[in-house]
Specification:
This protein is α/β, with parallel strands linked by helices. It folds into three domains: 50 residues, no CATH class; 177 residues, P-loop containing nucleotide triphosphate hydrolases (Rossmann fold, 3-Layer(aba) Sandwich); 92 residues, no CATH class. The chain contains 16 helices and seven strands. The protein has a seven-stranded mixed β-sheet with strand order 1-3-4-5-2-6-7, covered by helices on one side. The longest helix has 17 residues. The protein is globular and about 70 Å long. The protein starts with a helix and ends with a strand. It binds adenosine-5'-triphosphate (ATP) and magnesium ion (MG). The site of magnesium ion has 4 residues, from α6.
């Protein structure tokens, strides 16, 4: 362990805001622990020392060069430091609960490891577009203060045809060595080719390498894959994940919550939320947010600061017709208020009979 003098020096330099000295001392400690064979502890000290050097970041700012992908990786790995938190994502209770637990498991990794357990790190978010999958990955990074590395899968495949598996290996090397949340968006793009007529060489190799790397990884990072098409992912793919979360289209209470969030600053006391929710059937949370923004813009341009029920309904209807959705798309449950949903301990999402698939 560190000597008392070293510890005092560390705390003192931090208290005095002497970042350089703090960094040097932390690095010395890491080197000393390395020599004693405590490589994990040394690695953690280095990582936290790196964090101390990073200035506070604005939302989604580019990370410092320290964690930004360099060289080859820069072409297909996008890095950011999201300030998004889990409370920013409107989710049904059971999904929110699982994500919160993932954050706790990651933070308490060592305690789990002492008992031979590991935090869950390989996550699959499955569900329709605009339901918060990417946002959730950003929120995990934001909660943990990890960088978010988005793997540009499509670019990877088309740009490096023939060498994709090698590039994937590089990404997984980074997964192992640079702690972060690694987001593989739309992995169905990989899986779709398996079993299709185009199922030749390269596509199969890429997916197989991805699955193999996923299996092999034991590092400190969180891997999030997303898909709109879970049905085309076979069991071989699904079983590689520690947790599969089903994202769903929002209904009543979640609709109201999404609308209200975008209307902060407007007078909305007279809005008939139950009536409004009836007009949001079939729309994703992203669409509902966009409709709220549309209504807000129109209200501002009409020199008003009070949002009218009719304005919200009109914006939602416009959105639905853009998507070719007829009728109101609402149902009895869809008109429930936020209040009644809270009492059910559920943010109010359309259940489609799917359950969270959890590996134990
Ligand atoms: N559950 C949610 N809670 C709060 N905002 C949401 C939610 N879902 C979507 N949004 C809003 O819509 C935007 C787009 O959502 P996001 O990119 O997370 O969707 P997605 O599920 O990843 O969609 P896709 O499958 O098309 O990638 C978000 O930035 C946010 O403004
Ligand atoms: Mg997405």
């Amino acid at each position: 362990m560190a000597s008392a003098q070293q510890l005092i020096g560390l705390v003192k330099s931090h208290a005095e805001g002497d970042e350089e000295r703090f960094f040097d001392l932390a690095m010395q400690l890491a080197a000393a622990e390395d020599q004693k064979g405590h490589t994990r502890l040394a690695e953690q000290l280095r990582q936290w020392a790196d964090v101390s050097r990073t200035p506070p970041r604005p939302a989604m700012a580019k990370p410092t060069p320290l964690a930004a992908p360099r060289g080859d990786l820069a072409g297909f790995l996008d890095a950011s430091y999201p300030s998004t938190r889990l409370k920013d994502v409107i989710l049904p209770f059971h999904l929110e609960d699982e994500l919160t637990h993932i954050v706790t498991e990651t933070r308490m990794r060592e305690r789990l490891e002492e008992k031979g357990l590991r935090p869950r790190r390989r996550l699959l978010f499955a569900g329709p577009p605009g339901t918060g999958k990417t946002l959730s990955a950003a929120a995990l990074a934001g909660e943990l203060q990890f960088p978010l590395f988005t793997v540009l899968l499509h670019g990877l495949i088309t740009k490096f045809m023939g060498e994709t598996a090698q590039k994937l290996r590089k990404i997984f090397d980074a997964v192992r060595t640079v702690r972060g949340v690694y987001l593989f968006d739309e992995i169905d793009a990989l899986a779709a080719s398996r079993g299709s007529v185009n199922d030749i060489g390269e596509a199969r190799r890429i997916l197989n390498s991805f699955l193999q790397f996923l299996d092999e990884d034991t590092g400190p990072s969180i891997i999030v894959a997303t898909t709109n098409l879970p049905e085309i992912l076979d069991r071989a793919v699904l079983r590689r994940f520690d947790l599969v979360l089903p994202y769903e289209m929002p209904k009543g209470p979640a609709i109201e919550k999404a609308l209200r969030r975008r209307l902060i600053g407007f007078e909305a006391k007279s809005v008939d939320w139950a009536e409004v929710a009836l007009h949001a059937g079939g729309l994703s949370t992203a669409d509902i947010v966009a409709a709220a923004e549309d209504a807000a813009r129109r209200t501002v341009l009409a020199h008003q600061d009070r949002i009218e029920t009719i304005a919200l309904i009109a914006s939602l209807d416009r959105r639905r017709s853009l998507h070719g959705i007829g009728g109101t798309g609402g149902d009895a449950e869809g008109s429930q208020t936020l209040h009644s949903a809270r009492s059910r301990n559920d943010a109010g999402f359309q259940g489609q009979g799917r359950r969270i698939v959890k590996k134990t």
